[in-house]
Amino acid sequence: MYNKGTIIPGLIIFVLFVTFPIWFNGLKAGTPPKPELPPGGEKKCVESVEYMRVNHMQLLNKWRDNVLRDDNREIITVDGKNYRKGLQMACMQCHSNKEKFCDNCHTYAAVTPYCWDCHLSPKEAASKEETQ
Amino acid sequence: MDNQRRKFLKLAGAAALAGIGAPTLVRLSSSSALAAEHGASAEPHGKTIDPGPQGIRLGMIIDMRKFTEQPMLLDRAVTACNEAHNIPLIDSAKSEIKWIWKTPFENAFPEQSSYHMAKNVKDSEFLVLCNHCDEPPCVRACPTQATFKLKTNGIVAMDYHRCIGCRFCMAACPYGARSFNWEDPRPYIKKYNKDFATRMRGVVEKCTFCAERLALGLEPACVEACQGTGAMVFGDLNDGQSEIRQLLDQEFAIQRNPSLGTKPSVFYIV
Questions:
Q1: Residue B44's pLDDT is what?
Q2: Is A52 an interface residue toward B (CB < 8 Å)?
Q3: Is residue B97 within 8 Å of residue B237, measured between CB atoms?
Q4: A104 phi and psi angles, rounded to 5 deg
Q5: Cα(B110)–Cα(B84) distance, rounded to whole angstroms?
Q6: Is B52 contained in some domain?
Q7: Tens-place pLDDT, residues A3-58
Q8: Of B158, B125, B130, nearest in space to B144 by CA
Q9: What is the 8-class DSSP label of residue B145?
Q10: Given this model, what pLDDT does residue A131 score?
Q11: Is the ipTM of this complex over 0.85?
């Protein structure tokens, strides 16, 4: 191999540089997020915890298409409580703190879903409820 | 060589003749069948009425006689809609968002003559909103299917998630029923309805006949605001027993710009 002396140290420097975030944090991914459980004490979600953890975005998309496109706005009953399909009308009824529930994981995973460009978090909605 | 060219020209000529003659032949051979078919179902000219789409077809009557008597109902209906749908109040003709709004007769019905109009018509304002047409031009114009006609009830609905803000639908709508969010609407909303979302900058919005309220068994917000006065009647145009049909059977009602062929579902009794 030609230029062994420069290529091998160069490669090593490159690999070290690329993996900087990994070894700099001591080979740990930081403290995993702990989304807040419903402050109201509700125990059961519309689906199992495992399903929701992995597929909540698909479920929201399905609900969106059901409601807007298929005009299927059936009420979902969980533990005797009725929910209308929708982020504001179902999810946020129990998970009333967007910052401690949604943002907790989304910030950790560095994803920025655009739900809240239009949908109102309970905090945001309350901010203009009394003013008239 | 010469022979080959001669052959080619002959073939080309025959092919050209066949191509030109084929449609005529087809027309000749099928015309008798067509004529028979047509003759059987032919009705006296001018008597064929388009039955329109079947199934539930939601529509609205705006009885302007009632609004002329009680003009404050106009504002009540508009405000009810604005509050129900988190509509921003932007004081600019370009940026304003309108789902239902007031407009003078000559703007609402440009096809009708406004020469020597009755005084009550000239002086009163008309409520206009999305007509939820049977043949919605906005739906044809939308490149992303963000706006579409619901098969179950005929509402021309919007999916804001899909809207890319190209505004083709605004150009297509002959009623100006669509508004574009030129800026973030939230600072202009006075009071939030926590059961409804807002919109974001860059999407088009319009009246949805309160599909979200209908699902709860409620009437549209504007109709509810005029409750008890009969100024606005909402219901299924295909149900012979519905209040709206009873009223349409009795009264002469007009639609906006009927000659465009959009077949609006909103009727006006002037």
A1: 56
A2: no
A3: no
A4: -50, -55
A5: 30
A6: no
A7: 999 999 999 999 999 999 888 888 887 788 889 999 888 889 999 999 999 999 99
A8: B158
A9: -
A10: 46
A11: no
Instruction: Tell whether A106 is covered by a domain.
Output: yes
Q: Does residue B15 surpass a pLDDT of 80?
A: yes
Q: Is residue A27 part of a domain?
A: no
Residue B251 has pLDDT above 80, yes or no: yes
Does the distance separating the beta carbons of A131 and B197 come in below 8 Å?
A: no
Which residue in the set B157, B192, B212 is minimally distant from A129, CB to CB?
A: B192
Judged by CB atoms closer than 8 Å, whether chains meet at A71 and B196 is answered as no
Chain-centre distance of CA A15, in angstroms? 32
**Phi, psi for A121 (deg, rounded to 5):** -75, 155
pTM above 0.90, yes or no: no
Residue B53 is assigned to a structural domain of this protein: no
Residues B221 and B191 in one domain: yes
| Gap between the Cα atoms of B186 and A119, Å rounded | 11
CB-based contact A71 B197, cutoff 8 Å? no
| Encoded amino acid at B169, one letter | C
Q: Which residue segment(s) compose the domain that A60 sits in?
A: 40-127
Do B91 and B31 lie in one domain? The reply is no
Domain around B14: 1-47
Q: Which pLDDT score is estimated for A17? A: 95
- Indicate whether B77 and B34 sit together in one domain: no
Kindly report the number of other CB atoms within 10 A of residue B209's CB atom.
26
- Interchain CB distance below 8 Å, B197 and A118: yes
Q: Domain with B187 in it: what CATH number?
A: 3.30.70.20
**What pLDDT does B186 receive?**
94
- Please tell me the total count of domains within chain B: 2
Number of structural domains found in chain A: 1
Same domain, B161 and B228: yes
Q: Do B20 and B108 belong to one domain? A: no
